[in-house]
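ARCHIVE CARD
Drawer: 12
Card no.: 0347
Subject: one protein chain, sequence and derived structure
Cross-reference: see card 0346
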Amino acid sequence: MEFPCLPLCRDEDAELWTYSKRREMQEIIPRLFLGPYSSASKNKLPELQKLGITHVICIRQSLEAKFIQPNFPQFLTYLVLDIADNPVENITDFFPKSKEFIDGGLQAGGKVLVHGNAGLSRSAAIVVAYIMETFRMSFKDAFMHVKGRRFCICPNDGFIHQLRLYEAIYLAKSTVQISPLEQGRSLSFLSGNSGNLKRKHGEEEEEEDFCNFKKISRI
């Protein structure tokens, strides 16, 4: 399966970001969207169809099942994941299934939305993991790319730890599975793009952003 080149985050994206955008979905890479449940709630079918959304990953835990639901199974293809926004939740187990679902939707020519409740932690971690593995990127670069499109993301500390560990897992797996030629392309891609994906702020400011967005996500 072939993917478009990973789009670079632009400075003007930061300038246009407003707090209200956390209630909307954003396109992270072509045809892959990340957002809150409000972007896929019962009255949003016209908007979803207008955008061309065909596949949805709906993330919730059992306690949320009464108000976070796959609302349009007759029109859209759903994958429902039972994940708690809890640092001890093993979200890594859901990465392969999510990637297979997203790849299938994109390969079929569709568009995929990944949402949880607020679109900040669980769904963001799923999308970051997908970017990491699909484009063979480090956690840091993948996180900064997703954050560059949806500034309010804030995976909990446990998810961040698991994403960092997953970087070594998927890289070891891909090293065995891909050919030497593909390995060379991967290394070339990373060396050529990792610098562009870093924001102007330093690493210390990135850690400060984590804390700030955690405060926002509790509002």
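Annotation on reverse: The CA atoms of residues 186 and 192 lie 10 Å apart. The chain has one domain: 21-217.
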